[in-house]
Every structure is written in structure tokens, then in C-alpha cells.
Amino acid sequence: MKSTMLSGKTALVTGSTSGIGLGIARALAEQGANIVFNGFGDAQQIEKLYTDIGQEFGVQTAYHNADMSKPDQIQAMMTFALEKFGGVDILVNNAGIQYVANVEDFPVEKWDAIIAINLSSAFHTTRLALPYMKQKNWGRIINLASAHGLVASAQKSAYVAAKHGLVGLTKSTALETAPTGVTANAICPGWVLTPLVQKQVDDRAAREGISNEQAKKNLLLEKQPSGEFVTPEELGALAVFFCSPAANQVRGVAWNMDGGWVAQ
């Protein structure tokens, strides 16, 4: 039988047309939440995606193509969610991009884009979602940070700075909302085999002249002691927990799900 824990609630998940965002959107829909999808991709494929999920779980779904680097488009998306569903009860800030280079070689426009999409976008969605959540005295803000929100890696200065910043934003938001029924928490995944990570695997395989499978193994063994990827489904289950009454007093955490990465 379908769970109805979140029925009547609306979740907006940024970057939810693939990877982690899609896994979380599915998990929340399975609990009865209406979903506003956001992300890039083929328009027809996206329409099929959100229609199919709506039918599969018996929830209402919609899509907004806001570019998460543009504050005015983020505002339009939040207004769209308000008009379509009456507001956003669960905000999942997941949109993210990556670029790899030494600090002195890092293209300035890449730095600006990563900070805008991976960090500033979460500030804009949060500031626009909070008045509605506070009015209802219930809300869940879930920020997808990263193991890189807790520890650093070389050549990822913008990503690491943005994800550390996202953990900080989460803590401040949690403190401001502490006397209310609104919570803010961060999830810090290790390696998840998303399109973003698959590209790093492909690049590595080409660079080192090894198979894709070997490149995956090498990538994992450097950082993730379990030797296994975290799955979008596992992250979705954690997001559902954050939305449950059991997590009413879980506030301002940076919860790593990383196969032991940060424990080292």
C-alpha cells in the first residue's frame, strides 16, 4: 500500500531531471508529495518523466525550467509553485555543476557559475520558501551538499567552497527556524554514479588508458572505503526520514552518506 505520510504536501526539487535529484523526487512522490521538477534535458523526455512519476504514485507533478544561476528565474519558479500548488512545503536544493582545475588556472566564469548554481541558488529558493513555511509552521529544507562540504579535494576549489558554504547556510537557517516547525538540514553524499560523476570516470579512463570499470574502482578506492557508490535511492530514503516526525529535532546537521569517506 502506498504511504501517505506526505500527502497534501508539495516538494520542489532542483536539478531533479536525473541523478540524485530524481531519486529524491521519486522517494518523496512515493510518500504522497506533489512534486515540482526542475532541471535541464530534452523537453519531451522531461514531460514523460514527470507525467510517469505522477501516474505511478498518484500525485500531481509539474516542471519549471528555471536556470538556477539566474535569481529572476528562480523567483519565477517559486511563484509558479505557489500558483500551482499553493506553496512549497519541502524544498530540496540539489542543482549543482562541477569543474576541475588548479586555483591559478580556474576560469573566473566557471568559479562564478559554480558559486551561483551550487550555493547562491539555495539562498534564493530558501528566502522565497520560508515565509510560506513559517506561516504554516511546517517545512523541510534539505540542501544537497557533499562530502566536499566537510572535507576538501585538490582542483575543486569552487565546488568545495560552494558546498562548505551550503553547510554554513544550512546551519544558519536551522538556527533562525529553531523555534518553529521548519527544519533545515544538509545531506553530504560521497561518490554517487550520477551523470556528473560518470563524466569524471570517463575522463579518467581516457586519461589513464584503463577500462571504465577500472576507472570507477580507482575513483572509489581513493576516497570511499566501502568501495561502493552511494545510490540515489539511499539518498531519497534519507530525505524521506528528514521529512518524517522522527526528524522534528534534527536541525542543522550535515549528514554524510559517503561509504566512510569522512571517517578517515
Automatic annotation (TrEMBL):
Record field: transmembrane: none
Per the record, the domain of life is: Bacteria
UniProt entry keywords in alphabetical sequence? Oxidoreductase
Which EC numbers characterise this protein's activity in its record? 1.1.1.30
Q: Name one GO molecular function term.
A: 3-hydroxybutyrate dehydrogenase activity
| One biological process term in Gene Ontology | monocarboxylic acid metabolic process
CDD domains, per this entry?
HBDH_SDR_c
Xref: PANTHER family: 3-OXOACYL-(ACYL-CARRIER-PROTEIN) REDUCTASE (PTHR42879), 3-OXOACYL-[ACYL-CARRIER-PROTEIN] REDUCTASE FABG (PTHR42879:SF2)
| Name the UniProt record assigns to this protein | 3-hydroxybutyrate dehydrogenase
- List the source organism: Massilia cellulosiltytica
